[in-house]
Amino acid sequence: MRLNDITRGTGLEEHGITNANLIYWTPPTAVLYEQIVKRSEGLVTHQGAVAVKTGHYTGRAANEKFIVDEPSCHEHVNWGKVNRPFDPEKFDGLYKRLLAYMHGKDLFVQDCFAGASRAHRLPVRVIAEKAWHSLFARNMFVRATTDELVSLKPEFTVIDMPNFHAIPAMDGTNTETFIIVNFARKVILIGGTSYAGEIKKSIFTILNYLLPHHKKVLSMHCSANAGEKGDVAIFFGLSGTGKTTLSADPRRALIGDDEHGWDDAGVFNFEGGCYAKIINLSRESEPEIYETTRKFGTILENVAIDTLSRRIDLDDDSFTEDTRASYPITHIPRIVKSGIGAHPNNVIMLTCDAFGVLPPIARLTPEQAMYHFLSGYTAKVAGTEAGITEPQAAFSTCFGAPFMALHPSVYAQLLNEKIARHNVNCWLVNTGWSGGGYGVGSRMKIAYSRALVNAAIDGTLAAGEFRKEEFFGLMIPTACPGVPAEVLDPLNVWADKPNYKETAKALVDMFRKNFEQYGGSVSDEVAKVL
Ligand code: ATP
Ligand code: MN
Predict the structure, then answer these.
(1) Which of 118, 282, 469, 522 could disulfide-pair with 526, CB 3.0 to 4.6 Å?
(2) Is 415 in contact with 263 (CB distance < 8 Å)?
């Protein structure tokens, strides 16, 4: 292909962009590599991945995300701290300033889809200032075929200009940084941050609005995989709980690692790529993900690189703890190519309980499943500052509050119906601490979490015995192949038993207090779970 075939100066007039210099049209990975290097955006690593830094922001700028408050969405959006309203006129003003900013610039356009399902996919255009952000979009979304590209009309457009900084007094933003969704104009504006994850998570936000609202399709912050017989399992969980890690399993085919829809036919991936946490990545525990860090096309974010040898150090956290790899799902050896699977037989809710209270696995009644879905519990370890060793509970409804544009009850009701209709087994899996909380116990071995998940999925656990635990009323299996029996009951592995009981009671209280907000919107059975 000649360079001329993919660069032009025109074609973005419908967005008001009339004076760009070069426009790269859905450039392939190799062209983006060349441009990343030419523009000094990143370095090619010794085995072929590309290393970049995201700059000031190494994670999402949660406080800078807005939704334009206009008539089409006003009544439906769950306004609050997550979905902050933005003034429509301010939006138009900011858009004009962005258009001026783009004059004379080279722009990278990726036309692609969000959603593997033909019935529900959303054609998306990402117009990016940086070549590596364009590669990110290419990796993360569903690629269009050459034929599809000819006729692809974007339904939603992301204008991603990290080097443009807003002036809050003029633009109506909080800071120089902004991520603004406009449902009426079908545009998302991003500025002031080079964290590429904003691109995928803002599209996830609009799918979380459009799919349940218009089509009664459940959108979920979960990973999914399928067994040899096509049996599907989905894994809900907040960041760092193991969605990506546990869904990449040598015995099962990966459907997707982060975002899925569930319609009348089954589940489908929203994405075409994965975004794995790679700090201290172990070749032994996570071989599939480890291999992706050496492949052409993979973007390594904020990973330390030796500028002489171009070797990377996955254990180096000097830029951030949250180092990431973005890669097309085809970099994983066993995948479901279509991105589509059957109705799940198993729903697994992952939590990383740093208090070490919750059992490594428990079977949930449908009511408990609703309770835990609405609670969306995980814990954050306080980190190493100033000798803080106490973990902090974090409740994020639907295991993804920052991305849920509608009221949580909309998602909960859809999930509830589907669990009942398809007779789904539900499980709670604690990938966090065991034998004591953070600072005393240790994190659950990945091998144990995998063994537990597999025994749940293949029916081994359901065929065995369970015992009811006294604090949360959870049903704990008494045995699981590949996992020492004593680990299954958290009380067993705590040396300080009275302390376990105190900690468990305190956690139950935190759950109850958090759940007060849902009291009115759930059935009595669900409200009575704890
Ligand atoms: P995000 O939504 O941010 O993508 P995620 O749910 O996909 O988060 P993972 O990327 O799977 O989270 O991160 C889990 C992290 O925890 C990985 O770094 C993994 O190595 C580590 N880990 C340690 N012990 C376990 C365990 N028992 N199960 C799963 N992951 C574990
Ligand atoms: Mn993940």
Answers:
(1) 522
(2) no
Nearest to 50 by CA among 61, 39, 65: 39
Tell how far the Cα of 243 is from the centroid of ligand 2, in angstroms.
5
Nearest CA to ligand 1 atom 2: 239
Angle at 302 between CA 301 and CA 305, to 5 degrees: 105
For residue 89, what are the CA distances in angstroms to 182, 205, 352? 11, 22, 42
- DSSP code of residue 195: -
Residue 272: its pLDDT value, please? 98
**Contacts of 322 by beta carbon, 8 Å cutoff, 6+ apart:** 58, 59, 277, 279, 302
Handedness of CA 134, 274, 232, 234 (dihedral sign): negative
d(CA 301, CA 324) in angstroms, rounded, equals 5
Positions of the chain with pLDDT under 70: 1-5, 9, 382-389
Which residues are bridge partners to 189 per DSSP?
Answer: 159, 180
Bridge partners of 142, per DSSP, are 113
8 A C-beta contact, residue 255 and residue 368: no
Would strands 260-262 and 253-256 be described as parallel, antiparallel, or unpaired?
A: unpaired
CA of 246 to the centre of ligand 1 (A): 8
Mutate to test the pocket of ligand 1, among 244, 350, 449 (most ligand atoms within 8 A of CB): 244
Note the residue count of the chain.
530
Dist. CA 282 → ligand 1 center (Å): 12
Neighbour-count burial for 261-296, b at 16+ CB within 10 Å, e otherwise: bbbeebbbbbbbbbbbbbbebeeeebebbbbbbeee
CA 519/CA 440 separation, integer angstroms: 35
HSE on the CB side for 399, CA within 13 Å?
Answer: 32
Q: In this predicted structure, what is the pLDDT of residue 2?
A: 52
Which DSSP symbol is given to 335? B
pLDDT value for 337: 97
pLDDT for res 380? 86
Looking at residue 520, what is its pLDDT? 85
Give the span between the Cα atoms of 510 and 404, in whole angstroms: 22
**pLDDT value, residue 389:** 64
Find out whether the beta carbon of 446 lies less than 6 Å from any atom of ligand 1.
yes
Return the residue matching tokens 């994983």: 332
* Distance separating alpha carbons of residues 412 and 177, to the nearest angstrom: 32
CA-based R_g, the chain, Å: 23
At 28, list the tokens.
């392939």
Token output for 16: 């008001």
Catalytic residue annotation: 60, 201, 221, 239, 243-244, 258, 324
Non-local (6+) Cβ contacts of 145 within 8 A are none
Task: Work out the end-to-end distance of the chain between its first and last CA atoms, rounded to an integer number of angstroms.
Answer: 62
Residue 308: enclosing H or E segment and its boundaries?
none
Chain-centroid distance of CA 502 in Å reads 33
Q: 351 phi and psi, to 5 degrees?
A: -140, 150
Side-chain half-sphere CA neighbours of 174 within 13 A = 12
DSSP structure string for 426-483: EEEEE-SEESSSTTTSEEPPHHHHHHHHHHHHTTHHHHS-EEE-TTT--EEES-BTTB
